[in-house]
Design a protein that fits this description.
The chain has no helices and five strands. The protein is mainly beta. The model has no long low-confidence stretch (mean pLDDT 90).
Length: 106
């Protein structure tokens, strides 16, 4: 049986809205372009190593205090991080395709 990390290799969109996710870490699905993690309990993205193909990342209404770990996503066009506890934009370096940034209510 294949390792779970290799499964769903053709997945392009994933909606995990309103769950109990606490950390944004490695995402092995290389074709994933849209990830919705709104309304979870994510407090850090510092260990995030996936997302090379992500175009849309939704992290609204979590517990983020920092955006560290979100850099180096060359395809990211839209980032939604409203309703968190973010106090700095440090971590948004190396996002050459970013066109939309929603960061209200932080």
């Amino acid at each position: 049986m294949k390792d779970n990390r290799e499964s769903l290799c053709y997945l392009k969109s994933l909606n995990c809205d309103q769950n109990e996710v606490r950390e944004l870490t490695d995402i092995p699905q290389m074709r994933l372009t849209h990830l919705n993690l709104n309304r979870n309990k994510i407090f850090t993205c510092a260990e995030f190593t996936g997302g090379r193909a992500l175009k849309v990342l939704e992290l609204r209404n979590n517990r983020l205090e920092s955006l560290a770990g979100l850099s180096n996503m060359p395809c990211l066009e839209e980032l939604y991080v409203a309703k968190n506890k973010i106090t700095s934009l440090v971590g948004l370096e190396n996002l050459p395709s970013l066109k939309v940034l929603h960061i209200r209510e932080n």
